[in-house]
Every structure is written in C-alpha cells, then in structure tokens.
C-alpha cells in the first residue's frame, strides 16, 4: 500500500513537468506565429500599401440606369413622323481626366472639333457635377468614331456613348403639331422631382418640350432599366453583373394624314420670280389651315405657316439660331392654328344665326330692308356700315348668310345683347380652350361685361355689342376654335373634341383612343340647323364664295370672313390696292363637305390675305383632295414639285376695291 502511494506521487510530478515543457513550446509557437502575422500585416499595410490601394481603386461596382427607347409617332396610315436614330457622342468625365485643358487641345486636333463645341463643353462643365459625364461631341461622324476608337486607350475618362436620338423626317412640316424634344434642363428636373418622376429620367437626355411630344410624354418615355457593372479606374465597363431591361415607351398613331399635311403646307407656298435677280424664290404665306373630320373631331391636317425645323432643338439650338427665330418678323415660333388670335369676322354668322333663331330674336320670316348702314334704334349712335354702300335691299336669314349682310347681324347682336350673345358663343366653344391634345391652345377672348370692367375699368356699352355681330370688336378666336364651332353646325349641335391621337401601340397591341363629346346644343331645333346650313350652301352657290366653288363634284357649305386689322372712321375708306401688306385685312374661310353628310371640314386663315373669299380656294383644294378618288391624290414625294392651284387662282383674281370718296363700309367677305 505504501509503495503504491509513492508511485502515484512520482507520476504527478512527471505530468507537471511534461505540461510545463509543452506549455513553453506552445507559447513559443504563438509568439512565432504572432510575429509572422505582424510581419505580414506590416508588409500589407505599410510596405505594399500603395500597390494594394491602386488595385482596390482600379475596379469598382456601379449601378447604372439604362434609358428606355422613346416611342415612335406615326400618321394614320403608319408613316413614321418621329423616329429614333442611332447616334454616337463623345463624353468626358472631368474628375477622371488629368490635365483636362491639354486633353481638349489634343482631342480637338485629333477629331477636328470646332471652337464652338469646345466652348459649349466648357460652359456645360461648369453646370455639371465633376463625376458626371459631359458631352463634347453630340453627333460623331463615322471618321471621328473610327479615329477615337483606335486612340481610346490614351484618353482615360473619355468615352464614346451610343444612344438613340429623336429625329423628325418631315422637318418643319409638322413642328407645330408634333412639337419636339430637347435637353433636360434645370426647370425640367425641378418639375420631374415635384411630380415624383425624376428617378425614371436618370439615364434620359431629352424630354418633350412642345406639342404631342410634351402632351403625351408619359406614354412616349417608357420606364428606365438598370444594370450592375464592374468598371475599371478609367470608368470603362469590365463586365456586367446583373441587368434589368428598360421598358420602351409606347408608340402613338395620330389622326394626321401626312400626305394631306404636306399638301396643305404646299398650298401656303408660292414660287415667284425675283424682279432683281430673275431667280425663282419661294414665298411662304402667313396663316393656318385646319382640316378635320366633323363627325368625330379627328384632325387630318393642321398647318401653321411659317414654321421651323424641330431637329434644331433636339441637341440644343445655338443662341444665334434661336435669336434668328425669335426676331423673325414672321414669328415662325407661334402655332397660328391654336395660338394665333384673330377677330373671327363673318365666319361666326352661322352661330349667331343659331342663337338668334333659337331665342326668337329673328325667325325664318324676319326681313330687314338694308340700305347700307345700321344705327342703334332711338339713338344718335355712329353708323355701322355694310360692305355694299347701297345696301342689299330686303334681306332674310338665307340671304344674310349668303351675302354676309352685316346690317342684318348688327340687328341680331343688338337683339341678343352682350349677355345672351356671349353665353351662346361660349356654347360653340369661343372663349374656351378647344380641347385639342396639345398644351399650346389659347382661349381667345369672348368679351363680357365683367371682362371689360376688369380689362379697361369701364362699363359695357351697347356700341360694344354691335361689332360682335360680325365677329369684330373685342372678340378674338383661334383657327381651331373656328373649326370646332363650324363642326357643331355641321353636326347639328354635337360638339366633338378636336384631337390628334388615334391609337396607342404597345408592342403588338393597338388600342384605339376615344374622346368624350361635349354636351350637345339640344336647345337648337333641327329646323334651325337646316336653315343655317342652307344659307351656308348658298354662300358657295351664288354668294361671297361662288366664284371659287364653281363646277364642284360635291355640295359644299361654307362661310367667308374678313378680319379687320385696323379700324376705320366714318371719313376713311379701305382700298386693298392702296395699303401695304401688313395693313391688309386677314382672309378667313370655314366650311364642310359634302354638305348633307360632311366628312371633311376645313378652316383657313390667311394673314393680310385681303378679302374673305381669298381663303376659299385653299379649302376647296383640300376638300377635293380628300373626297376625290385616292388615285388622284398626290403622294408625299410628289408634293415637292406640285404647284399650288389656289395661289395660281388668287393671282388671277384681284380684290374688289371700294369706291373712293365715300365713307368706308365694313370689309367684304
């Protein structure tokens, strides 16, 4: 027992000794490993710090937005009106370029960049954050792309960016209708942020500014996609890690017929020989033409002349070019069809007749003995004169419309009074937005008592009402408003909204668009519409436009109008041959055909065109173009060479001058 206890004690001592030796060995090992680790950390963090920092900076992961393809715009027959074409631009990211001024000098020499482009880049650079790319060349040609691609490695931070750019193949022919896209500016960004749409535009260069491009921006733009990429220190993509494709914008099909649009535009041009040089020059008439289907309000053509090339604005128009447009005395920037304000003249007499007949101010049997002038009853007011000095003798409602007898409608305006007159004309759309689907749409001015008090701080007088009977005085309207009002007559009181959009195309799906009609004028009896339209038929059969509509293959109903540019006193006279062009009155015509079942309505305004019937040939030509067999219609490529029969007719027809030496009447229609 004793020996066994001693053996146990000896074993314990031996184990302690063994543990001590092993602990020392382990401690030494830990020290050695710690030293090795410290040495490696020193090597990584101190000796090779610069190399590894450069490696870490060399590649990075970025989330890049991908711009969607903008939807195309087509005419009613599928012809492309607004397209997207591939373009290469040269982009510079300033904070990735060392010695930027020197690089610009080298690139200018290498690629033949103009001083203007360099100046534009420097200006844009000041307005852009340094880490964002700035465009140096907006549209590179093939040679520039090839040359830079070979030398790209020498220019870190400089890249070629391929994208789709908006292009308008018909140039100025559709500007006031399509509008255009332009570079996104600070105002656009603020509006996008306010509407919560900014994130969807981070990769987009342009946005709709005017016309259809602006009005239907949400449909055309699409949805931005994203890709996760690895880029090197030069900002170039090494590989794509993930990709969420963008959703393209929807295509739009319009109600416009491009061949009719070009034809209408052609009518407003005239080839003339310059008396000095003997060369043929093109004269552009100022004015507007609106052609629409009165059954549904679809706009078939809408021309504002003169116009301008929208492609100038896509990448940003130069200050010089914009100043030239802005200072052009012909004002090409104004959409005359929807923003041009003109006294509607006698084109409103059918609508005034509807108001007079419905309210009982006149009847179909009302006859006035016109002796050339009219005065407010029981007063010593000024004489409101007719266009014929000797008058028209006995006049009923049919003849009043046929010959555009001013004195008859002075009486109608007087009988209605300003309150009823303005209320009724508002029902026809005057004094309101037409509802056309572009934002450039003026209300014009349908005067009221309240309007005059607010505008001039004066009460309304009876003498203010009388000129409204012939569409003059304080009354102004746009061509699209006149067309809309005429369509209400053509449709027996149904007011269709004028519109340009026909279908929305999403991939292979084509969805027709419908526009709600306005409340019809049900208070006007059917028999009164028949009276008014018969009077308008007489206008083209034997009235103020009869010379223009002879030998027609279909019946037309229409109304001429003369919009006074300046007023005449009782002692002044008007002779169109004696005044300069800018003092001549505006010529207007509005009408529809076939008269018994209209499918085409045309409204024409010719600035300083003289007499109202001067605008009628333009409407006649468009009606014939639409209603005759399609085989007789000129196509777009033929219109360039086709002369304008309307203007040829006008050169043969001289305006009728009034007799001098007598008080001047209101202008003839």
From TrEMBL:
It comes from the Bacteria. Gene3D superfamilies: DD-peptidase/beta-lactamase superfamily (3.40.710.10), Penicillin-binding protein 2a (Domain 2) (3.90.1310.10), Penicillin-binding protein 2a, domain 3 (3.30.1390.30). The active site is at 346 (acyl-ester intermediate). The keyword Disulfide bond does not apply. It catalyses: Preferential cleavage: (Ac)2-L-Lys-D-Ala-|-D-Ala. Also transpeptidation of peptidyl-alanyl moieties that are N-acyl substituents of D-alanine. It is a single-pass membrane protein. This is Peptidoglycan D,D-transpeptidase MrdA. It comes from Photobacterium kishitanii. The lineage of its organism: Bacteria, Pseudomonadati, Pseudomonadota, Gammaproteobacteria, Vibrionales. The gene is mrdA.
